[in-house]
């Protein structure tokens, strides 16, 4: 996921680059890899091949696998209500019972104050 975040030239990429070893990045241990395998197998049997390859090449499955393994919450701005052909994080989270929220809900839950 680190590589996907730093790929851009936006403020998030600039902020994240020097923080790789500051506890924000977690390596996928065997349990997380097993969760990812479960997700990948499900996706491969339920979605079209082009959707599967797009989903599996990105970080979305790993984000969900980490949340699934560690009783975490997947945070995304994606919505499962949009009707394009991309496999959405909230859709897969629902299937596996992984909590999912958007960035604004996360900031509220953390008590962040902006402004």
In brief:
The chain is mainly alpha-helical.
Describe the structure.
The protein is mostly helical and 115 residues long. The protein has one domain. 58% of the residues lie in helices and 3% in strands. The protein has helices at 2-6, 11-16, 20-24, 30-46, 49-57, 60-69, 89-96, 103-109, and strands spanning 74-75, 100-101. Strands 1-2 form a two-stranded parallel ribbon. Helix 4 (30-46) crosses helix 6 and helix 6 (60-69) packs parallel to helix 7. The longest helix has 17 residues, at 30-46. 17% of the residues are buried.
Features:
8 helices; mainly alpha; 2 strands; 115 residues; single chain; two-stranded parallel ribbon; 58% helix
Query: How would you state the average pLDDT, rounded?
Result: 88
Shape: globular
Tally of helical segments: 8
- Tell me the major beta sheet: 2 strands, parallel
What is the H/E order? Answer: HHHHHHEHEH
Number of strands: 2
Number of domains: 1
- Report helical residue fraction: 55-70%
Which structural class should the secondary elements be placed in? mainly alpha
Percentage beta strand: under 5%
Give the radius of gyration: 15 Å
Uncertain residue segments: none
Oligomer: single chain
Strand order, largest beta sheet: 1-2
List the helices and strands and how they pair.
Blueprint: H1 2-6, H2 11-16, H3 20-24, H4 30-46, H5 49-57, H6 60-69, E1 74-75, H7 89-96, E2 100-101, H8 103-109
Parallel strand pairs: 1-2
